[in-house]
Amino acid sequence: MNYINRSVFLSLFAAAYIGTGVQAQSTVTLARGLTAAVGAQGRLIWIDGTANIFRSHKQNGNVTYTDYTTTREGVAKIVAQCKAAHINTLVVDVKPLAGQVLYASKLAPHMTEWQKKPVRDSDVLAAFIEEGHKAGLQVDASVNVLSEGHKYYSVGPAYQHTDWQSVVYTVDRGLMAPNGARLNVRVSGEPADPDAPQLLRDDTALLASEPVSGMVGLESTDAGKGGADASIALGKQTNLILDSSNKVTGVVDSALLGDDPLTAPESGHMVTASRLTDRDWISKNVHVGDRLRLDLRTDRKLIADAPSEKIACFVNPLHPDARKYEMDMIREIVTNYNIDGIVLDRCRYSNLYNDFSDRTRDAFVRWLEQHQAHASSRRQHDKLNRFPEDIFAFAQTPGDPIIKGPLFKPWLEFRAQTIHDFVADVAQIVHSIKPGIAMGTYVGSWYPKYYEVGVNWGSSRTPLRFSWFTSDYPQTGYAEYFDWICTGCYYKTATKEDARADGQSEYGTVEYAAELSNTAVASGAFVYGGIYVLDYPGKPGVFAKALDAAARQTQGWMVFDISQVDDYNYWPVIEKAFPTPTVPPGAVPDLLQSIRSARQ
User: Fold this and answer.
1) CB 172 within 8 A of CB 300
2) Is the pLDDT higher at 379 or at 528?
3) Which fold is adopted by the domain 42-163+315-352+414-582?
4) Closest alpha carbon to 57 in 47, 49, 68
5) 148: closest CA among 312, 10, 12?
6) Quick one: CATH architecture of 167-305?
7) pTM over 0.70
8) SS3 per-residue string spanning 286-304
């Protein structure tokens, strides 16, 4: 089929497809139907920058490391494996979250060391482009665009340019003893010191064999690992029991609990302390019968100094120097490398508690004034009087939800508009240099909560509506700036049918997440369901089913990450599940243009 006939065919097919059913539903499923009709499917694999620099080998009980993606042999092996498994697109992470790059940059620092091991001097991106293109694969360069530092190692440009850093709205809860001594405590889910003793409500039970890090809801790499063999030694964890008036009713060592769970009194609390300093504080300052007082303090801190932010050091997208730096880096990659696409990762805020800098506050005030000048009565009373409380405040009662202020919803719209405008600037730069280059992005599939990181990755045409939307919020959707959007459908259950069979919610499945993603994007871009290999250790059948669920509900899939595919030897699983080669949807001329035109 020649180019002209293909364009005519696609236009006619799309028009006919739209005419087959209800308009809104047809718009949502248009990309899926038309992509399937032409036999295209995105099959992407993510090559994480730092996870693949080395490969570990264990021999005689000793672990050794060899260079991998920094060698031509390692790159060639990856390409051969992907080709054999009928993967058609390599997403190569060349700017990990530390802000140190794996390509030949004159702007950004090159990564020379990782986890105290020297990194071989190599242009990883150039090697993948050469080897990937020889094999007929597409090669996209991914950048962690708004992350410029790694907090574990205190490295990255954000540490040299502290004014670039985003600012975190933090909370510091404390227990005040009768003698005036104060113990810092935390509530799960709040931006506080993750190592502080945890304050638990009366609906939580603690077992003798269950350390704090094993409790549901904690943001810990050990979450969920509690169990019968996780018993706590005597004197290693102290539990302070408080009744509804914060009177101390007991001080209990976890090792003495036996088989009975420990719970806080009704409307009371329990404080679990594992650090020696915290246990000492309890023994020196608290006695049964004492009445303690809870206090609440808030602050705004640079992200590098905020203990609640664990890994990535985000920069403020509204800082002109930081913004220019990111744009110049993307310009450098697109200009100097024959890539097929540029991919934005971490193009967002860290969470709901970023960015509360003075710069962002002032920009929000200007944004409110602009909207008031030519908007409805809905906005005429919008004025920032208290910051950040007019947006939201932390509840005095630990565990209660945040108190949303009068500007909470406008703030969500403003943040989403900020990221929308950032993406628009990136698109303008990319397409002015190479008009035919693709743009992709990775986001989490949990669209109903993604406002927490300040991003509306859907289309302005999405039929979805939520209580936190303003009437203008859909207009912040940035889907149409991208050729494809990969959504992390990171769930352990593949299908809704499997969930029902296990008595679980359908919402926690790859299938539902992929379906929701398609609805949010509403055929404004191709959608690929992201699959997380670590969700399926030793479960190749479930892994294959997850890939199939993503492929059925979207226009393809992405596997994260290649190192884990190697670890579990899931290459044969992918090859068997998708035995026939295919091209990515973006490689079909005029396909996306026809889909978008049909939506009109």
Assistant:
1) no
2) 528
3) TIM Barrel (3.20.20)
4) 68
5) 312
6) Sandwich (2.60)
7) yes
8) CCCCCECEEEEEEEEEEHH
